[in-house]
Design a protein that fits this description.
The complex is a heterodimer of chains A (about 270) and B (about 280).
Chain A (H helix, E strand, L loop, with lengths): L15 H4 L2 H17 L3 H16 L5 H8 L3 H12 L6 E5 L2 E4 H27 L2 H16 L5 H31 L9 H32 L18 H23 L5
Antiparallel strand pairs in A: 1-2
Chain B lengths: L3 E9 L9 E10 L4 E6 L5 H8 L7 E6 L2 E2 L6 H5 L2 E4 L12 H11 L4 H14 L15 H13 L5 E5 L7 H17 L3 E6 L2 H4 L4 E6 L2 E6 L1 H6 L1 H6 L6 H11 L11 H16 L1
Parallel strand pairs in B: 3-8, 3-9, 6-7, 7-8
Antiparallel strand pairs in B: 1-2, 1-4, 4-5, 9-10
Helix pairs in contact in B: 3-4, 3-5, 4-5, 5-6
Classes of the chains: A mainly alpha (about 270), B alpha/beta (about 280).
């Protein structure tokens, strides 16, 4: 059943990472990604890896799940690693015709692979420990200053909320329509790509029609519950900067200090 | 003055277009605070239009609708009207906004600008009132139809609405969900004195109301207690309307020559009536 798909990759648990303010987590993820890209040598890279490692350890989510999140991009990692091996400079260790493998090439390839892996892990820590609603909420609050520049921040967040709410409903509906069309003899599993796309039309049209009907009902429901945009609106859940967040902040500052020292003291790899 | 006053309301969709058709032809109706009114009628008789007129989602083409003395046409006081009269629609999937039950219930009070702590209190109370408190952190799509409708009702109670208009709330539910919703509505009416306007075409639900208003072709046919309305079976049949099953049974028996002293509305009442009749027969 397609409706079994879980949205996002949120894993509910009670951990310091789950408790951390979602705004903080978003900022930290961006921070970690910047660190990974700015790292010039193995020591500073190790600092950023350690930083993300601590984040993973504090999330109480089994390592297996993190490794699973790497699976879809395994090909990209291997591909860039192999490519990088041949792009080094200096004396060749092995010469295969015009292809040469150098020490710098190997170092490079290891460096880049670690970069990609930690990048994915950093974003996984965020999506594993933050529910979609918390994420939207945090994004709305972080972008609030943009509302002064007439960017429709609230509307954007509302659209995200509604989209997240209706994805499972529409998936379920797609499933139903597909079964209904199959019952009428529609063939969706065989034929070439063009034929398969054509077979989707009788699924998409009813889906669209019903989505518009839902939208109309939803608009009525929202209006009768006095929705009138973001102005004068309050929120039940207020994001609060708690003890955990202060600890996390101090930790991040320490990591930054260590990182800068490492980056300056030791000459770059690349 | 009554809580809701519908005065001489006429309504047509698309007044500008050529094929505009009048749906309501001069409706007069008043509903007192604390009443439980069932609005009955065929498909297309104008009862769903009525539902949207009660909270100003639609405005009358002529005539007026007053809610607690406020004219629904007064745009500046639109929110006052909507926070007094809430609307629950037919499709349980299409009226929940947020991806978490308690956040959906909070949606109304949030729009009204209620302070956060107060919203929390109202949300908890509303969820307890519809018996959905333990599901507060669930995702709506994992709930049953009856549960979703109860969440929708909670979302309206949380706005401290004094009247709930329900437009065929049980039409898409299974029998169990139907019972859940009906019990919730009755409890709210009894314990919280919330005015209920239930639009339905299930006669067995209409019987549970304190007052039944029957509509046909944009007009009000009859208005009275369920017993008054359903005792005139001939009249309802003439307008192609059903009567509750128990009433139908006794009506047919009467036609076959077995006259029972009363007209029952529910099953239990019917059984009691038969028992008494059969006991009398034995003597």
């Amino acid at each position: 059943m397609i409706s079994d798909i879980t949205l996002g990759q949120y894993f509910p648990a009670k951990s310091p990472m789950h408790r951390t303010d979602p705004r903080m987590k978003i900022c930290l993820t961006v921070f970690a990604i910047v660190l990974i890209f700015v790292a010039r040598n193995f020591l500073s890279l190790a600092v950023s890896v350690l930083f993300i490692g601590v984040g993973m350890a504090c999330s109480k989510i089994p390592l297996k799940l993190y490794l699973k999140s790497l699976k879809p991009i395994l090909f990209i990692i291997v591909f860039t690693a192999v490519l990088n091996i041949f792009y080094g400079s200096g004396d060749p260790l092995v010469q295969l015709g015009w292809l040469k493998i150098t020490l710098s090439g190997i170092l490079n390839s290891v460096f880049v692979s670690i970069r990609i892996v930690t990048l994915i892990l950093a974003s996984s820590v965020l999506t594993f420990t933050t529910s979609p609603t918390q994420l939207t909420d945090a994004i709305e609050r972080l972008l609030r200053p943009l509302a002064k520049l007439h960017v429709p921040v609230h509307e954007f967040a509302m659209m995200m909320t509604i989209a997240l709410r209706f994805v499972p409903t529409l998936l379920e509906e797609t499933d139903k329509i597909m079964s209904a069309q199959k019952a009428r003899g529609a063939d969706m599993e065989s034929g070439g790509i063009v034929q398969r796309i054509k077979a989707l039309v009788p699924v998409l049209i009813p889906l669209f029609v019903s989505a518009f009907r839902r939208a109309y009902d939803l608009a009525t429901a929202m209006e009768s519950r006095c929705y009138h945009g973001g102005e004068g609106r309050t929120k039940m859940k207020i994001l609060k900067f708690g003890h955990t967040d202060w600890v996390v902040l101090v930790f991040a500052v320490l990591a930054l200090g260590l990182f800068i020292t490492a980056n300056i003291l030791i000459p770059p790899v690349l | 003055m009554a809580f809701i006053e519908v005065q001489n309301v006429r309504f047509s969709y698309d007044t500008e277009s050529v094929d505009s058709r009048e749906v309501l032809h001069g409706i007069n109706l008043s509903i007192e605070a604390g009443e439980f009114v069932a609005l009955l009628g065929h498909n297309g008789c104008g009862k769903s239009t009525m539902a949207k007129l009660f909270n100003g989602m639609l405005l009358p083409t002529s005539g007026s609708v007053l809610v607690d003395g406020i004219d629904t046409q007064d745009e500046a006081r639109q929110f006052e009207v909507r926070s007094r009269v809430g609307l629950v629609q037919q499709n349980p999937d299409n009226q929940l906004v947020a991806g978490v039950v308690e956040e959906d219930v909070a949606f109304g009070p949030e729009n009204l600008g209620v302070p956060p702590l107060e919203i929390r209190k109202r949300v908890d109370e509303a969820l307890k009132a519809v018996d959905m408190y333990e599901y507060r952190e669930h995702a709506p799509h994992k709930l049953s139809g009856g549960q979703k409708q109860r969440v929708a009702i909670a979302g309206i109670i949380a706005m401290e609405t004094r009247c709930i208009v329900l437009d065929e709330p049980t039409a898409m539910l299974d029998p169990r969900g139907r019972v859940e919703v009906m019990e919730t509505i009755q409890r709210l009416n009894r314990e919280k004195q919330i005015t209920i306007v239930l639009i339905t075409h299930y006669m067995d639900e209409a019987v549970q109301a304190g007052r039944v208003v029957v509509m046909d072709e944009g007009e009000i046919l009859t208005d009275g207690s369920p017993r008054e309305v359903f005792s005139d079976v001939e009249f309802l049949k003439r307008h192609d309307l059903d009567v509750p099953q128990a009433t139908e049974l006794v009506y047919r028996l009467a036609a076959a020559g077995i006259k029972l002293p009363e007209i029952p509305l529910g099953e239990e009442e019917c059984v009691r009536l038969f028992r008494r009749y059969l006991a009398g027969e034995a003597h």
